## 1
Amino acid sequence: MFDLSGKVAVITGSSRGIGRSVAECMARAGARVVVSSRKADACAAVVDSIVSAGGEAVAVPCNVSQSAQLQSLVDESVKAFGGIDILVCNAAVNPYFGPMASMPEDAYDKIMNSNVKANFLLCNMAAPHMVGRGGGNIIIVSSIGGGQGSATLGVYGMSKAADFSLTKNLAIEWGPKGIRANCIAPGLIKTDFSRALWENPKLLKNVEEGTPLRRIGQADDIGGVAVFLASRAADYITGQTIVVDGGITVKEPA
């Protein structure tokens, strides 16, 4: 039920961290993978890793903040593998850490353009190709920050909350045409993107002690969930946000 053989998966932000894990996990499940991020050499390294393990992958560099590059990502993916069955919107940015009151306008725009608008555009570009193949799956990687307030990551959390809503609307709009849309909301995952958080000994200790599983997440904790959501095992799940946080959001305050 978790076999993705014959499926084509396009994954943004997949040269490292969560995106790389999703790409490698889906390749192991049989999918043909399009690895995408801004840097071509970083994409090529992931492709080499997948191919050396017996998988099939190509690299299509893309800066998700540029709509023309998003369209090129879709076009090149279809050209390489004949279509798209799975789209994972994982790429995201967070150029600002601090209170919203002193946040520069350009930082706000960068977060919203990359974390929300890019997902909106890319889903609209890719979904028609899924319909032509009888359906497909859209997965947006969000964050538990979308359901919380923050004195330092407020706008990042706002963008991730918007992704929750985007997912629900995609599910309604494209469901009749055979496309499922779901969202993954990770907690603190040990990746380069979140390095400033987990390299802070005090913060790390607080998170670990406040998490029922007593650890922060690893990238493969998300990769496996993405495979599940893209597979036949999740055929009746759509419009949902799956929280993957070791239980920290269900724990009572200390």
## 2
Amino acid sequence: MLLEVGNASYRHNGGGGVGPLSFALAAGEACLLLGPSGSGKSTLIQLIAGLLTPQAGTILVDGTPMHALAPAARDDLRRRTIAIVFQSLRLVSALSVHANLALARKLAGLPADPARIATLLDRLAIAPLAGRLPRELSQGEAQRAALARALVTEPRLLLADEPTSALDDRAAAAAATLLLDSARAAGAALLVVTHDSRLRPRFPRAILLGADGRIAGARA
């Protein structure tokens, strides 16, 4: 399994959090984790990526417990294996859309690939915006740029935190299709966490979170 979450939980001091949760994802498998705001979806993304340490249970990425690694080793495993589309997007403000994607490949230790960048921007309908800075984009355009930046690194595990929250129905459908198709083509595992119920019919597997951050249901 590429991702194994075993009875993992994390609770914030001010209340809220996620878990205990248990599920696994194999290479090439896609899963939607659907829950309301405040149910701990973003916390789960940070736990899987090793940005937070579970207070109980285990999280294994490619057989390795991220939280047991030294910081440098954790960063290296994340860089080689995981790409994240954060809800806050985190595009580099001083760089164009194209340069953001080129930098992402460089930081992942991958060779330059202008053709891949151009293809992704075209499929997400933002090719004409390649030379623009993030501040010159609408929220929906910036969200698609962030999605392209994640996909350009050819990750084995793709994590997406609310990737369609600012998109209209047509753009949301296109983004979901690109996520699913790209993960499938690369043999990558895909986990999308969202409150956007429009995505549920598009995923063969769904896990439903309750407001308390615990599993409320699932569809295999």
## 3
Amino acid sequence: MTILKQQTSALHAGYEKDSQRTMAVPIYQTTAYEFRDVEHAANLFSLKELGNIYTRLMNPTTDVFEKRFAALEGGEAAIAAASGMSAIFFAIANCAEAGDNIICASQLYGGTLTQTQHTLKRFGIEARFFDVHKPAEIEALVDEKTKCIFFESLTNPSIDVADISAITAIAKKHKIITIVDNTVATPILCQPFEYGVDVTVHSASKYTTGQGLAIGGILVERKGLLEVLKGNPRYPQFNEPDASYHGLVYVDVPLPVFTLRIRLSLLRDIGAVVSPFNSWLFIQGMEHLSLRMKEHSANALAIAQFLESHPKVLKVNYPGLKSNSNYASAQKYFKNGMSSGLLSFEVADMETAEKIVNATELYSLVVNIGDSKSIITHPASTTHQQLSSEELIKCGVPAGLIRISAGLEDKDDLIDDIKQALESI
């Protein structure tokens, strides 16, 4: 089949109809699969044949989700996980081990900050941080133990746009893998592989499902990543025999090696696997993801334009605004300059922010994004509560910041509700 356009892939990629010829992808709700005989089972475990072994490793419904998402992202292969946070952990743990370090943008989702700064530290992996607007800072952080550079294409909740090309240029100079969280932009608005990124991760719980129905994550590797890994002294785990898998050398296997190693090692041993039913829900969401992202972006822009004109609002963070410092980068990296449905704005202080959030009627106070229904959040008291005042400022989350995930309601209703909330204080 010829290479399909993105929207066509969202509806068809990865699914070959079985004997029942069902139009909808079936839900293979099973833990295990029967082998034809002992030889067949042995061949599967030794990779002489490819096929289903156990749903902790693979599942036919999840396989369609993975192939379809990889097609949307323009990547070679994908692997699904139980959540976005587990996808991030798998991506980093596939690169680094005790004694290594990773370089991360300071402007990250709160959960990612705690995972990289604290949890991974207990595994012996050090996180070093740079300002996403100052990629040159990366150079001073790199040493022979640096295993990956991690950042978000569109940051949550500071709403900054990374200079992807500048970061990947430094990574290529030092032969370091780059990992980008593309959750907020989605593959519809941003294609990080076109700018040199090696691996993308997503929380499928957000825009992919689109209705807050399921928790899940997914990781995609770019085409040709083997060229970076093969013979690279930074990554002996791909070039030396894996004692836990019959001495397998991953770079010698004619398969996408980054996701293969996660499947055969990390997913196998840690088990943070997505359920087949959740994979099925994500497949449904992907079919209309491109339509929703246009509406999310349009509503967010309208709200941002209103907020920018309001006297009680100190600052609005949305790259779709021409006045925003990220506008040029959004025009460069995002499709037609659309900047997703996430925006934030600052008011005088935490007390004022809390009053505004409490005064809204249409927006739901929820710590999620990407839902079809609009969401409002006060990050300093919720998602980033664990950070000190200094850390909040450093990652772009001052105490008076309010985050909005613009849903699919009529934009006039959304603006009217935030207007009355501002005027109530």
## 4
Amino acid sequence: MKPNAVIFYAVFVGAALSGSATAFEWQIGDTRASLYGYAKLDVIHDVGANLGNTVKRADIRLDGEKGPEGHSILHGYQSRLGVSSQTVTEQGDVKVVLEGDFFGNGGGSFRLRHAYGEWNGITAGQTWTNFGGFLGMSPTIDFTPQPGQGNASRQAQLRYTQGGFSVALEDPNNLGGKMTVATSDSATQPLPDLTLRYQGRLGELSYGTSAVLRQLEYYQTANDEEQNAFGWGLNLEAAYLLTQGLVLRGSLTHGDGIGGYLEGSPAAPAYIDPRTGELESIKASGGTAGLSLTVGPGNMTLGYGVARADLDDAVNFGALTGGANKQFEAWHLNYIWSPITNVSYGLETSYHRRQVQDGREGDAVRLQGMVMYKF
């Protein structure tokens, strides 16, 4: 990829997803440390139902449902603070990152985002999952990303990276999602999730492929039995620089028992068949597509994403009702620009749809603006 393409990617994705630039840096012996972050104001107006501080897809009202129209929210919960360090040793550099924001409990509480160290290809701590990535993700001003991609979120893990390949053992109780069971029973993931990823580049095409393997378990107290199911997921993503300042990106994700590893998955990873008491995994699929164009001092993006779960058996067998969420869709159109270094503005219109198993649908429109000051 040409240097200007690399710069475009760094600015475009960095401004939308990280927004941080080093402001304070100091050297102590062999360690260089820096403090970074940003303050961000989000100005939100929901034309219909209130979708919260960041879009909650399950709160989209279905056609015919009544409720108040028009809701405005202003908040600074996405504001971020981080510290990073890099220490030079004879056996290789040691990197440490601690970062948090104020989106804890849905907004208002400080929460941990990243807390990890890296040395000689070994990463340990909490950081981006090894399943999926950012290549197929169109930036959104709303903190909820496009549905349908590999969930680019953070969780505890132990990872080894060699070149473009990485393998990790990850927390099975976080992104994977939980099953709903009787209060006397328990649903567990007895083993860490195994994730594998490879990322590479061919000319102007950057691509990534990843997989997750997981075990689901359900313990029934009444008959002292354990039910097990195998879960898996695959993700493909790519970004292609069509011409200077014009990027096409997209992703495909599919799995069985994949749960929250699919961003915006409408369903849990599995359900209990009430007829047999057996644990049955749920298939889910998704995809994203987006086009980004450099316009003036910023970038204009149009993106689409969809996530869908196969609930036919679960509903037919009586484990779920016809009101269970089956599909989430979202369109985003935004413009993000920086008039000066470390200051970013953005405007966005997003359209969201929710469909439940019995065929009912609903939609919602969100208007959003942002002001971000980075340091």
